[in-house]
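Dear support,

Our group has been running a series of protein-ligand predictions, and this particular one with (2R)-2,3-dihydroxypropanoic acid is the one our PI (initials K.S.) wants archived with full inputs and outputs. We had some confusion internally about which version of the output was final, so please treat the block below as the authoritative record. The input we submitted was:
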Amino acid sequence: MDRPRVVVTRRWPDAVEDRLRELFEVELNPRDVPLDQSALREAFSSADAVFATVTDRIDAQVLSAEPLKARLIGNFGVGFNHIDIAAAKARGIVVTNTPDVLTAATADLAMTLLLMVARRCGEGERELRAGGWSGWRPTHLMGTQVSGKTLGLIGFGRIGRAVARRARHGFDMRVLFHDPFPPGAEQIRALGAEPCETVEALLASADFVSLHCPASPENRHLMNAERLARMKPGAFLINSARGDIVDEAALIEALAAGGIAGAGLDVYEAEPRVTPELMSMENVVLLPHLGSAMRETRVSMGLKVLENASAFFAGEAPPDRVV
Ligand code: DGY
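Confirmed final output from the archive:
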């Protein structure tokens, strides 16, 4: 049988691209320039599978490609809000993602943001690199204590729970969470976490609020002006999930007004654009969507796409089927 033809929309780690060449008749993207909408549409007409990432907007228009050849979207990533799942389903296209392998990396990054913003690490590094450091002094760049404080997790899936583990066991934090679909009581007890019925109840008590819910239509602007105003004065917001869970304009107002102490962000509403006001705010740590960006993790993510695709083309159930 001919090898399936696959279009890979971005550059992947070398080791995985080698494997891709062995398994498929593959069209890689060595220049790593994102495909525009018409190139994506063309990929669905010419390939048996499209291996996509968060930077591809796979909307109903792209999925209306005629003739349609692709039967599989292998998403390199766990979040799939950039894919119109209903349209994929309507066209009989299977979608897979890469859960589990990026849980630790993303949880580590959420803790990195939390620590960086609390301890004013971005400010300190900028000052030092600019040659502005005059030496140690008792009142220099005093930050906020993390250990023993209260962390509120909105979303308590794999990544939220991995953050809970780090916060509880590494930093002796009290951990609250809100999730409409919580894990079992045993898992919650093992993590020493406390459920909150509502987001508002969590916001009233948390010194740090970290977002780990999916980017669904219901969660769009979940952190809006009203909810930001309900955070404790002096609290910090951490977002390593998806940009549109936070109303970025409302966040900027809350930060500028001193309603909250700071924010640590890895994701933005209109990536790769970052709202310019954020760039000049000292109490904000800004990272360029690095959640899963570890060599080991990115290789595992790629291999997971291949595992799913190999199962699919062998006529078996892909282990990480989303639809
Ligand atoms: C993920 O896996 O969701 C990362 O954010 C990249 O898409």
